[in-house]
Amino acid sequence: MASRLNGSRRKRIQRELDLKEIRRRWREDSVHDFDEYVGRELARIDVVEHECWRAWRENIGERTVTRKDSNGSFTKTTKITEKHAGNVAYLNGVLRCVDRRARLLGLYASPRRKHFAPDGKPTAIAFISKEDWDAL
Predict the structure, then answer these.
(1) CA separation (Å) from 1 to 5, 10, 61?
(2) Residue closest to 52 by CA, chosen among 100, 88, 99
(3) Tens digit of pLDDT for each residue in 3-30?
(4) Which of 105, 95, 118, 9 is nearest to 49 (CA)?
(5) Between 97 and which of 15, 21, 29, 49 could a Cys-Cys bridge form, CB atoms 3.0 to 4.6 Å apart?
(6) 97 exposure class (CB count in 10 Å sphere: 0-12, 13-18, 19+)
(7) What are the C-alpha distances in Å from 135 to residues 39, 62, 97, 128, 130?
(8) Are the CB atoms for 39 and 101 separated by under 8 Å?
């Protein structure tokens, strides 16, 4: 009976060790995959931001507006040259890219988190510890 208990205990310990190894590999793989994903998304955001800046720069300058007014047999053509500061929609696109990049990098604090210790001193945003992760 003692050998039977030792055998089941060994199997349980082996399962726990296997689970720890599985968790360790999963963490390594998921961190790698997550970093790769973040890198791809940052690259996409960079392309969009670059295009917004390019479009905004191309939109700056003078613009000629031609207006034709007809009054029976007489047509009057008026050309007006205006200085154009650029379409603000392109700058809004840049701002959205900056915002998405900051969110992806975790630069915004979560409104649900407390950022002050009980003594009133600011604290750093904490992530789960390795020991807590292993205990999951």
Answers:
(1) 6, 14, 91
(2) 88
(3) 555 667 767 767 666 777 777 777 777 6
(4) 95
(5) 49
(6) buried
(7) 30, 65, 38, 11, 9
(8) no
Domain boundaries in the chain? 2-108
Q: What is the pLDDT of residues 98-113, one digit of tens each?
A: 999 988 888 876 655 5
Q: How many residues does the chain have?
A: 136
pTM for this entry? 0.50
- Alpha carbon 100 to chain centroid distance? 4
Pairing mode of beta strands 74-84, 61-71: antiparallel
Q: List strand residue ranges (DSSP E) for 1-136, in order.
A: 61-71, 74-84
Q: Whole-angstrom Cα distance, residue 15 to residue 17?
A: 5
* pLDDT at residue 61 is higher than 60: yes
The amino acid at residue 131 is E
Residue 101, both tokens: 């990049």
